[in-house]
Design brief:
- With 197 residues, the chain is of the alpha+beta class.
- Helices cover 25% and strands 17% of the residues.
- The chain has five helices and six strands, in the order βααβαααββββ.
- The protein has a four-stranded antiparallel β-sheet with strand order 3-4-5-6, with helices on one face. The chain has a two-stranded parallel sheet with strand order 1-2.
- The radius of gyration is 17 Å and the shape is globular.
């Protein structure tokens, strides 16, 4: 059995979601902080194997941003571009709660966000690791850089995100895909270079 969670379940708590804030709608819904804490405990104990984005963007009309109708709103959170920063920011918050010696490190993030998903999808050892023979998929990341999320500045097709206006820590400076720089200093370089796997 494989168990996963998503960045939004590690970052948000139900008591912080205001009435009518439909950008937060997802399935299952965001739970209380006690549940969020148990997810972190499960990750650290190895009971949860990985963190998946569950990226699900939607236009404002489908999210019912204007009328706040949670029942009719599309359920899904756009977070693909922000996942690493969201998880790192939440991990730093959790660091004060977890026991000494169970430090939340970039190594654990790489395991949860890259290695384990690649193994689950059958893409290892080519993806998810830095090793001879693997694709040179790398990032240059500043774990201390802070920024305020501007939904309109994201590369998602639709700008609706519950992270809009939030301060996050840890910023990708450069992205390298199969040895080629595809993102640098906040700019995408050229057309999409994805490959059907």
């Amino acid at each position: 059995m494989t168990v996963e969670t998503c960045p939004h379940y590690l970052a948000f708590a139900a008591e912080d979601v205001q009435d009518g804030a439909t950008p937060f709608k997802c399935a299952p819904p965001i739970r209380e902080s006690a549940e969020r804490n148990r997810l972190w405990d499960g990750l650290l104990a190895g009971d949860i194997d990985l963190i998946a984005t569950d990226h699900s963007p939607a236009p404002p009309s489908m999210k019912h941003v204007d009328d706040g109708d949670f029942v009719a709103a599309w359920g899904g959170i756009a977070s693909l571009q922000l996942g690493l920063s969201v998880v790192w920011t939440a991990a730093l918050r959790e660091q004060s709660r977890v026991a000494e010696g169970e430090g939340l490190s970039p190594y654990l993030l790489a395991r949860w966000l890259a290695d384990a998903p690649a193994r689950l999808a059958g893409l290892a050892p080519r993806k998810g690791a830095i090793a001879p023979g693997a694709d040179a998929d790398l990032i240059v990341w500043d774990p201390d850089a802070e920024f305020i999320v501007d939904g309109a500045a994201l590369y998602h097709r639709h700008a609706v995100t519950p992270y809009h206006g939030r301060r996050l820590r840890g910023r990708v400076q450069t992205t390298i895909l199969r040895g080629e720089v595809v993102f640098d200093a906040g700019t995408c370089l050229g057309a999409a270079r994805g490959r059907l796997l």
